[in-house]
Amino acid sequence: MTQEKILDKLGKIKAMAESAKAIGNEAEAQAFAAMLQQLLLKHKLDLSDVDYAKEMKDEPIIEQRAEVIYKDGKRFYKDFPDVEVVSRRVEWSEDLAAVIGDAYSCRFLVTPGRSYITFVGHKSNVAICEYLFLTMLRAAENMSLKAARAFRMKARAENGGAGSTPRGYRESWLDGFTSRIRARLQEERAQFNTSGSMALVRVNKEAIAVRSYIDDKYKKKAASLGGVSSFNRSGYQDGTAAANAINIKGNAMNAASSMPNKQIGGN
Q1: Would you call 220 helix, strand, or coil by DSSP?
Q2: What span, in angstroms and rounded, lies between the C-alpha atoms of 101 and 109?
Q3: Fewer CB within 10 Å: N-end or C-end of the chain?
Q4: How large is the average pLDDT for residues 107-118?
């Protein structure tokens, strides 16, 4: 499968996912997004050494940020018009970008004063990385807000409607979600870690090349943001459980046949 066919496949998966999201089937949209990691690794495994070398020569490292649109004085991602770009950096979304980037041999850049994420890597890696990141970002935002509301209502009911609810639930939920997504993506990738597996050798080389690109071009690194200020055990556990329910299994691939701001180094 050539790079062009990989990107064409991505376009079809995105169309199916957005169609599913439009009719309210978020689980199906996530299932389509889940196809991407196995698709990319299988592609790298199937290439001959000669074809892989040619693909890397024809596919230099790029920097790409998802296109945004403006609506009612706010910024939204064009392909994800319900995901807002806010006027501040967002720590948990940067953590998620690092998780997704690690899975696809990419790094990311941040924009001071914005929640933009710019991925850096080889073209096909970046395309898949960006889409999965935004899919997970949207899912986590929606689920965490819903879970936080339910948690507050339960806490108030238990206190007879009086008193403040425990702090840090949503932040801890997002922390648990991101940590578990990292572990699950690593588990999926480990399935290719068999004797003589060339796919992981190749993606590791790509990761090293991207790291060198970032280190050479961006001497200044972005300051890290603060961690969760108030840890909430229930929030962390609920976020972990939500990440376990997200469909990122490789068998989701079977569904396909049946159906200009200044930037600084982010990581």
Answers
A1: coil
A2: 11
A3: N
A4: 91
